[in-house]
Specification:
single chain; 86 residues; 5 strands; alpha+beta; elongated; five-stranded antiparallel sheet; 2 helices
């Protein structure tokens, strides 16, 4: 599974994005193949122009460092998306 940043999107006065895990599974059988993809939210981050808050899918708060560990560069990308427009 790989992690990627979805969004960011402006919602009212804040910017929000999701970190998702995605993967593909392929199965070869009887001379053919079949594939399936999955995309699962792992974390959500919210930036209000001053504070960046991040949460796991169950609502447990995580640190900015943990968010960076899940998806390198995601805190910076969220701040850059806001670009002082919040």
């Amino acid at each position: 599974m790989s992690h990627a940043l979805e969004g960011p999107r402006r919602v009212g006065d804040v910017w929000i994005c999701a970190v998702v895990a995605s993967g593909v599974q392929m199965v070869a059988r009887n001379g053919g193949c079949r594939g399936a993809g999955v995309k699962t939210p792992v974390a959500v981050a919210v930036f209000d122009g001053k504070r960046l808050l991040a949460f796991e899918g169950d609502g447990t708060p995580i640190s900015e460092a943990a968010l960076e560990g899940l998806c390198p560069g995601s805190p910076a990308r969220l701040r850059a998306a806001a670009g002082g427009r919040v």
